User: Fold this.
Amino acid sequence: MKVAKFGGSSVATAEMLKKVADIILSDPERKFVVVSAPGKRFEGDIKVTDLFIELGQCYVKDESIEPALNRIIDRFHSIIDELNLNEKMLDEIEKSIQHILEADNFSPNRLDALKAMGEDSLAKILSEYLKSLGKQASYVNPKEAGILVSNEPGSAQVLDESFDHLYALRDREGISVIPGFFGYTKLGELMTFPRGGSDITGSIVAAGVKADLYENFTDVDSVYCVNPSIIKHPKEIKKLTYREMRELSYAGFSVFHDEALIPAFKAQIPVCIKNTNHPEKPGTMIVSERDATNGPVIGIASDTGFASIYVSKYLMNRELGFGKNLLEILVDEQISFEHAPSGIDDMSVIIRENQFPQDKEKRVVQRIREELHVDTVSVERDLAMIMIVGEGMNSTIGVASRATEAFARANVNIEMINQGSSEVSMMFGVKSDKLVPAVKSLYETFFK
Amino acid sequence: MKVAKFGGSSVATAEMLKKVADIILSDPERKFVVVSAPGKRFEGDIKVTDLFIELGQCYVKDESIEPALNRIIDRFHSIIDELNLNEKMLDEIEKSIQHILEADNFSPNRLDALKAMGEDSLAKILSEYLKSLGKQASYVNPKEAGILVSNEPGSAQVLDESFDHLYALRDREGISVIPGFFGYTKLGELMTFPRGGSDITGSIVAAGVKADLYENFTDVDSVYCVNPSIIKHPKEIKKLTYREMRELSYAGFSVFHDEALIPAFKAQIPVCIKNTNHPEKPGTMIVSERDATNGPVIGIASDTGFASIYVSKYLMNRELGFGKNLLEILVDEQISFEHAPSGIDDMSVIIRENQFPQDKEKRVVQRIREELHVDTVSVERDLAMIMIVGEGMNSTIGVASRATEAFARANVNIEMINQGSSEVSMMFGVKSDKLVPAVKSLYETFFK
Assistant:
């Protein structure tokens, strides 16, 4: 039994939905289907979910909702038309939208309900389309499926009992089409997952029904070993482990939402990333364990937008609690740290720049100076992190040497190395403008 | 004007004291002399300070003090005899000891007073000896010199006003001989510095009198670039900076007490490490700045006795305050951490094993598991740290590459790399049994 999840680009048009139906029907194991809302059809297009958000904002601000509503209706209209489905469906979608908007007051939950309309409508359309092809298929609302979540609008977390509810769906006849991205609280209120949350639904359903495979259909043939915008046509990754995926997704691997896999991971369901446009290609398998056949490094992730807070103080090393006190100031200022390399009398804290606007920097620096009586405190911005990832890297002698040599060959100074906690990754900090040459050189070293 | 400090081995015998006198008298700039207590004369000998500690412990336990007392008296006796000094000095030393022992009750301060007797007596002997050679010299008690310290028996810290008091000593005629290792509180109580504290006194006096040079006489010709017990006849370091010395001293560079230099450092007094047995050799200069002429790495320090606490938890990265909470438990348990490398969902904390006995380990592991709800927590012992140190290393491309290659060549797996906070050092963790081959290989790389 397989769970197939189709992303926004895979369901953007009627033409794509036909491909989706072909894929579903080509394998009787594909009993559960999870869909996103229609995504971009072309560069510059607007995703249906963004149109729903715009609609909600206009409504709140008492501006005209017509432009956004018309675009939404147009998109569904053309899909329904091209699939030769009954136009009554369109009326129902419009009614549902009006119903949400006309509820008593505009709470965050109502925004959640609007945001979820893209997925919900599309799941209805797809199940109708499958039926129109003479197949047994049905739309299953997440409430009916038993996907219970915490009461956190926009960042709901799944509750454990959901998995048992979902298990009961195994016996359901035909193909079940479930909209991604949302669940319901125990009180029956709709809550959405964080953005990208259709992946989360897919992963939850796969874990719940104990699928043999969770197929995640997207618009790339596979996960690449490095960002294709840095290296043209990079090597495809055939198989990687959950741990590797999790580490890679931290720094710039945006194939899908990085926390989405956790339910599948916990239930040990293998995941396959496939391309809706080339379903015959093998894609990338994400599994619990793999043979380390392709060398110690499987991927290179990289991301910009980091800053470093450097603090020095004589005899810091002797001062019990210094590190804790420094991190406490950051917690106080709602800044989470990424890494904290330390010398004898100094310590740096690496954070994401988006957590650290100028005014906060000023306050944090002042607090560190005054509360910790340090000798020096300074901030460096425009840092990039590069991570090499691979199972067994930790036990392979010479990986650090090959990696650091790659930096030297590219004439890139390494500002920071963090290695030793994760067994599957090694992280390097460089100045942002050195990211590209460094990644290119690492690619040469480990993949050529 | 110079301050010359002579360590325990330099004042262990009358013969050595003659060398010391020759050194002092060969340069009229050597106006201030700071001495340790007599150290070991040969492998297996007992330092006089240790005899005083033994004496105090016997007295407290109501055991016979004769054996220790006799050994102390014997040592001073032979020194006084061989230097042809008046035997009355010996009586005075004995009287002073009795005076301390017969005070009302045995408080930690009285142990401090006993511990300081080695230095104090030797300073008196040396000044008498210089006088017997027809030179103008005098014993200066730290109270008279104005060395004021905090009320922390055994780990006193100098108070700032001491430096002004010491400055007044500049006008004193002749050679001033000051016992190292102790000062007095404002209430007049004797307090010792941490062990090795004669270096501290020397450094304080040099800073106070604003010496042109602080000479630290010991039993090695210079500071070596690596531990001579690992590499035979290693390269001598001619000149290094305070920062380099401080980093090197952290991990196994035991030429002298690593925090002793700070007063000299703050006053920008250059320091020279010299050999009492070869005073004609140039020794090692420790300065504020140096030309980076000898390549980026000046020394390799290494030390065993580290342990690592590994913690993993899904979505740790998303949990604001996790790092702070982990360090808080350690602070609570009076454990100071050395380094804290972190992955995405895991973090390791490197600590010194001597802070982490088995019973404490059990409690800490339990607390981490229960209070932080982690997925995994484990402890690894028998780790060693290897540090390469050098000014400007941070801006030299390729140092990390050469270093990590050295580990690979020695077939040593790197358990941890910590680089990025200190500009002058890079730290590597390895299993303890890999320390020697790793250091040898690094030496080959950077010094051959």
User: Anything to note?
Assistant: The mean pLDDT of chain A is 92. Chain A has two domains: 2-219, 299-447. Chain A is about 35% helix and 20% strand.
